Amino acid sequence: MKTVGSEKSNKLPQPLWLLAELTYACPLQCPYCSNPVEMANVKKELSTDDWFRVMQQAREMGATQLGFSGGEPLIRKDLELLIAEARRLGFYTNLITSGVGMDENRIKAFKEAGLDHIQVSFQASSEELNNFIAGTDSFQHKLEMARLVKKYGYPMVLCFVLHRRNEEQIRDILELSIVLEADYVELATTQYYGWAYHNREQLLPTRAQLKHAEEVAKEYQEKMKGKMRIFYIIPDYFEDRPKRCMDGWGHVFLTITPDGTALPCHAARQLPGLEFPNVRDKSVEWIWNDSPDFNKFRGLDWMKEPCRSCPEKEKDLGGCRCQAYMITGDARNADPVCSKSPHHNKIVDLVERVGELAGTPAFEAKPIVFRNMKASRKLIKEKETLTV
Amino acid sequence: MKPALNSGSIPEIAPTFRFQWEKAQDCYVILYPEGMVKLSPSAGEILKRCDGASSINNIIEDLNKQFPGNDLEKDVYKFLEEAHENGWIREK
């Protein structure tokens, strides 16, 4: 949550943000999706009643913001019921969607059920690129949905994930957002988890692209002050201090995946040594307060050097555990984005390599792996073959 | 800049924000897409009265009745101007 600060106290923190990943099914195939590449292994989704129970328990623990996400949450036929129950419990309800699977009747029904806000994702400002990245002809439909979201009086967030292929459209992206009367625009530079990690070389922007995007974002932030809030999310591969990931492990965020696994962040499923408590057989209270997983990286005691003796450890909490694991092989290491990490060069080298090769035909010819169940099954198989 | 509020203005919570009591936080909060602002007790008391029926004059009178002995007028205006700038309230 953007404005919630952390307060120092001996009390355990509260799960203020409940992210309900209702399904991994999605009509889009965005190659930067944060869902796990092994998503095809997840079969049985939680029932309506399971979600009712989770929402009630999380609300009792102090959760205020509820995000319905996925995959594509519109695929769930019981979404209207879930929204109504969430609203009855007093949640602020956010629908995070591609817009594909929505129509005017549903937007109206969501409003009647008490939905507070709709976030619509776009893949680009041009129809051609949007449809290529999304892997579906969805651009015209998205435009129509964005207009309807406004017509029904919702506050609207438009989310654009930025990467090498669409970074140059930044000005058009912001102009499109103005035309569609967005209240908030999220310019989210790709973070390299899940599918995005797999497609890193194909997505990583160049320094020149980033500089341009940042300048344009700043210009529009100034120009649209008081009318449209623009969030420009800084890409951490280009930084030398790590981000305060998820505002701390087990500190604010609680993600429940489609099969009921509870995670401190939506990328954490890949970390070794976690037990993955499930809401089918454990209460949210036990999971949040007492489970080994949620306590594993809480606070500062788990840290190794260089974090342990670092004067900035309370500020950044050592950065992201998943990034530390993916790039250094140990989730307790410092996030390699940090220049104090002995692995920092791995990130610098990648950024430089992509900077040199970007735009050259041979490099750009390397195919993007699109996010779909077929590709997921293939990647699972490849991984199994490697470990046998 | 939005037009200045005056004693006859009738403020209400803007439809794109939600104002509610949060038991777990023990305070009133303003909710908006993916965010929350915790309000001080006095801010909560002021916004509670922005019901789309009471004028700012009515609100100040009511607050003076409930919290006698304080000159609240300046503080109420200051906070409401801020809330207006943030888009939390609008004039009916």
H/E topology pattern of chain B: EEEEHHHE
Question: Termini separation of chain B (Å)?
Answer: 18 Å
Largest interface: A-B, 24 and 18 residues
Strand percent estimate of chain A: 5-15%
Please give the order of strands in the largest beta sheet of chain B: 2-3-4
Largest sheet strand order of chain A: 7-6-5-4-3-2-1-8-9
- Characterize the overall form of chain B: globular
Radius of gyration of chain B: 13 Å
Total beta strand runs of chain A: 9
State the separation between the terminal residues of chain A, measured CA to CA: 42 Å
Low-confidence stretches of chain A: 1-9
Describe the structure using short key phrases.
heterodimer; A: 388 residues; alpha/beta; 16 helices; 9 strands; globular; disordered N terminus; B: 92 residues; alpha+beta; 3-stranded antiparallel β-sheet; 3 helices; 5 strands
Structure commentary:
Chain A is α/β, with parallel strands linked by helices. Helices cover 38% and strands 12% of the residues of chain A. Chain A is built from 16 helices and nine strands. In chain A, strand 8 (253-256) and strand 9 form a beta hairpin. In chain A, helix 2 packs parallel to helix 3. The model of chain A is unreliable at 1-9 (pLDDT under 50). In chain B, the strands form two sheets. Chain B has a three-stranded antiparallel sheet, covered by helices on one side. A two-stranded antiparallel sheet of chain B has the order 1-5. With 92 residues, chain B is an alpha+beta fold. Chain B starts with 10 loop residues before the first strand and ends with a strand. Chain B has three helices and five strands, in the order E-E-E-E-H-H-H-E. The relative contact order of chain B is 0.26. Chains A and B meet through loops of A and strand 2, strand 3 and strand 4 of B.
